[in-house]
Write a structure and sequence with these properties.
Elements lengths: L1 H18 L10 H11 L1 H13 L1 H8 L4 E18 L5 E22 L1 H68 L5 H36 L8 E2 L13 H11 L1 H21 L5 E12 L9 E12 L7 H67 L5 H36 L4 H8 L2 E2 L2
Antiparallel strand pairs: 1-2, 2-4, 3-6, 4-5
Helix pairs in contact: 1-2, 1-5, 2-5, 3-5, 4-5, 5-6, 5-8, 5-10, 7-9, 8-9, 9-10
Length: about 450
């Protein structure tokens, strides 16, 4: 699964390079942001390297099943003396000065070794675990990009709303000033509007900082500056993005969620660790073949050459290891119980996240429709209040409150739109079925400025 995703990611990056990098003259779309993140995000680059390292587990485990060959060579220069009786029985001392050399080739093939065979099965599971972890981290990248993108857009929307509210208060203040000069307004109206204007100005300053911070967070994922972003479409039809019952989504998550897959693989590895350690009590059988060649290897074989070929089997039966094997088995059993508890915790986390996002998406559909009606009503209230003020029915503070209510409702609607899209992706990620098509679906709700 992870290797397939990685290939798709490589294709996406290639497309990004083909069509050019994001420039300051163009708005950044969601897909462009994701393509840039695939290439530049430090966390994703680390995940790729970690997965590449994880592919070697199986290779390393399999290597012990193949023949192990070793060549050795040594060369020495020997100096010394030797004392021996001569033909008359008197001691005779002679100097020794000779060279010696030896070389050998040894090949060993495992025939039966519980520990080696179990380690190979364990290495396969470790590689699969690496793939599952990479799949989870790849899907996490999609979530991080979408969250950073919508948070930046929400910050921009907040800035635009606060500016509009500030401008409305400024316009109202100018009108109050004119009325006051004509003797038709009051000092209270001027002070009320000025107070609202001052708060709105502070909100604009704060919103400007929030926009910069949100863009910087997105830029750190993309690996480049973010000049501007696509805007959310206005008045779009609200589709039903999530279909199926909650139980169906839970079943999908059980089959596809990479975190659950990784937890199950970790449990399998822990079980195999027990079997591997039990192999410390089992006999081992190897086939050994060797060839050695020596020249003047010892004083007794000085000036002699030797060539020896050996073929045979070696049986090793462990008898006592000081209690190490039993301790390793007990440790592995405890690690297995920990892995089982971790798997249960992971399942609870995944199911809770799935339920949370499923309910949020479903409730957001009704919430958005209600907020859209509320925005329309708030707009109508602002216009009606303006007319009522002219007729002497309403006063200045009523208009200020209506404008404030409109801004708050528009803010809540924008937040609901972005939360709906983000929760849709989070739900797909929790179910383990998120892919590039889901990003394209979310990107379809945005339009270039």
């Amino acid at each position: 699964m992870a290797s397939t995703y990685f290939k798709k990611a490589q294709v996406a990056v290639a497309c990004a390079l083909l069509f050019g990098q994001v420039t300051q003259a163009h708005a950044v779309g969601l897909i462009q942001a994701y393509q840039a993140a695939l290439q530049n995000d430090p966390q994703h680059r680390a995940a790729i390297a970690d997965n590449q390292a994880g592919q070697q587990h199986e290779v390393m485990g399999r290597s012990a099943l193949f023949p192990q060959a070793q060549f050795s060579y040594s060369l020495g220069k020997n100096r010394g003396d030797q004392t021996s009786p001569d033909f008359l029985g008197k001691p005779h001392r002679s100097d020794l000065d000779y060279r010696s050399s030896s070389s050998g080739l040894t090949i060993r093939q495992t025939l039966f070794n519980v520990e080696t065979f179990t380690r190979y099965k364990q290495s396969i599971a470790q590689t699969q675990l690496s793939n599952a972890q990479f799949d989870a981290r790849s899907k996490d990248l999609m979530v991080r990009v979408v969250l950073a993108y919508v948070e930046a857009k929400y910050a921009e929307d907040q800035l635009a709303l606060n500016r509009a509210q500030r401008d409305a208060y400024a316009e109202q203040k100018a009108a109050n000033d004119r009325l006051f000069l004509k003797g038709e307004g009051t000092k209270t109206d001027m002070l009320e509007t000025q107070a609202k204007l001052d708060v709105a100005e502070a909100s604009v300053i704060e919103s400007t900082d929030n926009v910069m911070n949100a863009r910087n967070a997105l830029a750190s994922i993309m690996g480049g500056e973010v000049p501007s972003l696509d805007s959310l479409r206005e008045g779009f039809e609200l589709p039903v993005l999530v279909q199926g019952s909650l139980d169906e989504w839970k079943t999908t998550a059980e089959r596809n969620n990479p975190e659950l897959t990784a937890a199950q693989l970790a449990l399998d590895i822990a079980e195999q660790e027990i079997t591997k350690n039990k192999g410390g009590h089992a006999p081992r059988l190897d086939l050994n073949a060797s060839y050695s060649r020596g020249k003047s290897e010892t004083l007794a074989t000085q000036k002699q050459d030797s060539n020896i070929r050996t073929l045979g089997v070696q049986l090793v039966i462990p008898i006592f290891s000081g209690g190490y094997v039993n301790a390793a088995i007990n440790q592995a059993v405890a690690q297995k119980e920990k892995a089982r508890a971790d798997m249960d915790a992971t399942r609870n986390k995944v199911v809770n996240e799935l339920i949370k996002q499923y309910r949020f998406v479903k409730s957001s559909e009704a919430k958005i429709m209600a907020l859209r009606k509320s925005v329309a009503s708030s707009l109508a209230l602002v216009e009606a209040t303006k007319q009522s003020i002219k007729g002497g029915i309403r006063i200045n503070i009523d208009l200020l409150n209506a404008q404030q209510q409109l801004a708050a409702t528009q803010r809540d609607l924008a937040q609901a739109h972005y939360g709906y899209l983000a929760s849709f992706l989070r739900l797909k990620v929790a179910a383990g079925v998120a892919n590039l098509d889901d990003l394209k679906t979310i990107a379809g709700f945005f339009v270039a400025n």
